[in-house]
Design a protein that fits this description.
- The structure is a single chain.
- This protein has 369 residues and is α+β, with helices and mostly antiparallel strands.
- It folds into three domains: 3-109, Immunoglobulin-like (Sandwich), CATH 2.60.40; 123-225, no CATH class; 238-367, Glutaredoxin (3-Layer(aba) Sandwich).
- It has helices spanning 111-139, 144-168, 176-180, 188-201, 206-225, 268-284, 300-309, 327-331, 356-367, and strands spanning 21-30, 36-42, 47-54, 60-67, 71-77, 80-86, 92-97, 105-108, 238-240, 247-249, 257-263, 289-295, 316-318, 339-343, 349-352.
- α1 packs antiparallel against α2 (144-168), α4 runs antiparallel to α5 (206-225) and α6 packs parallel to α9.
């Protein structure tokens, strides 16, 4: 794999690193065309080399020295590189054909490094396919539609392979490589899933620490922009009860655990979820749980008929019969229903959009049974 395509920039302070870790890497890289190899890390605009070892005429080498600490490194062979995870002082052994490092390389005492190499093979194979497809289209534009259709199917297979890789090596430091291909701004959930696994499995790594801090910063930004992030106070509101005359506020229920439920009689998914809400209400109502239902109905009779039919026996039903123009729904930015917010006794968000088993499990955790 060429170094120019390296995966991300490392920007951590050397002063924060561990005092050092003795490493030893030995083996044979024949027909490499170079006379030395380097153990390095990439800092975006430059490489920092920690240890340099000569290769003899047969490609044998013994690389020994000190690196900052357990981490992710690169073994540079000319303009090629092998990805290495170094955790301790165990001697790593490498055997490779310098002409075909991308396909012919064996790792001993370095399972996570082998896994990284497996990922590189997957991505390299896909890149070769895309390059070939572009070349074929340039050679004969009449085949573009057929080639695009073929490549669409190939991309699905590639994505499946990546997902299998991630699932097979959960918690491995090798997941640093697929993590680097995820745009945290565009796919925060996937980034979060991987970085939390990696951090739990390899917290000693300065690189992982820096990536985890990047994740925490982004998470804080998202939560700051989310009005219903966990722990935030839910805004109060007032709306008409079923008689269309009396009003009630959300704050009237302070001191209870409240499921704020936006729904409507005409909403199929809402009606399908109602039995689950009823079941949980019956189970926890004597322990301080209640439901406040905000309906986006515009027809009072249909609204009341649905409450009766679905046996929504809690007293907290409100609506201004404005349909999608419902003032509470607009205040809360509701654009689809069902939408729920589980609120604690102090009026703070526990979780949003809980349905089915997720609602039941969260209530079990909240009430302890």
């Amino acid at each position: 794999m060429k170094i120019q395509g390296l995966l991300f920039i490392l920007l951590f302070s050397f002063s924060s690193m561990a005092q050092g870790l003795k490493v030893q890497i030995e083996g044979n890289i024949f027909y490499s065309g170079v006379d030395s190899i380097r153990l390095s890390q990439n800092f975006g605009s430059y490489f920092r080399d920690y240890i340099v070892s000569p290769l003899d005429q047969k490609g044998n080498f013994e690389l020994a020295g000190i690196v900052p600490g357990p981490d992710y490194y690169l073994l540079r062979i000319g303009n090629q590189a092998l990805h290495l995870v170094i955790r301790d002082t165990t001697t790593i052994k490498l055997y490779a054909d310098g002409r075909k490092i991308s396909s012919q390389c064996n790792f001993v005492n370095a399972e996570e490094s082998r896994q990284m190499h497996e990922y590189v093979l997957l991505t390299t194979s896909w890149q070769q396919k895309t390059d070939s497809a572009l070349t074929a289209i340039k050679a004969d534009a009449s085949k573009e539609a057929a080639i695009n259709q073929y490549m669409t199917e190939q991309f699905k297979q590639y994505q499946t392979s990546i997902q299998s890789f991630v699932g097979m090596y959960q918690g491995s430091a090798a997941l640093i490589l697929p993590l680097s291909s995820i745009n945290i701004d565009q796919d925060f959930q996937s980034y979060q899933t991987l970085i939390t696994q990696i951090y739990q499995g390899f917290p000693q790594s300065a690189i992982v620490q820096q990536l985890y801090q990047k994740y925490l910063t982004k998470k804080q930004e998202i939560e700051a922009a989310d009005p219903f992030a966990k722990g935030k106070i839910v805004p109060d509101f007032e709306s008409f009860k079923t008689d269309g005359k009396k009003q009630m506020k959300l704050s009237d229920l302070r001191g209870q655990v409240v499921l704020l439920d936006f729904w409507a009689s005409w909403c199929g998914p809402c009606r399908a979820e109602n039995p689950n809400v009823v079941k949980n209400y019956q189970k926890y109502k004597d322990s301080g749980f209640t439901v406040m239902s905000v309906s986006l109905d515009s027809d009072r009779n249909k609204w009341l008929a649905a409450i009766a039919a679905d046996q929504l026996n809690w007293p907290n039903h409100v609506s201004d019969l404005g349909g999608w123009q419902n003032k509470v729904a607009q205040q809360f930015g509701v654009t689809s229903i069902p939408f729920t917010i589980l609120i604690d006794r102090e009026g703070k968000v526990i979780a949003t959009n809980l349905r089915g088993a997720a609602l039941e499990q969260t209530l079990q955790q909240t009430f302890g049974f």
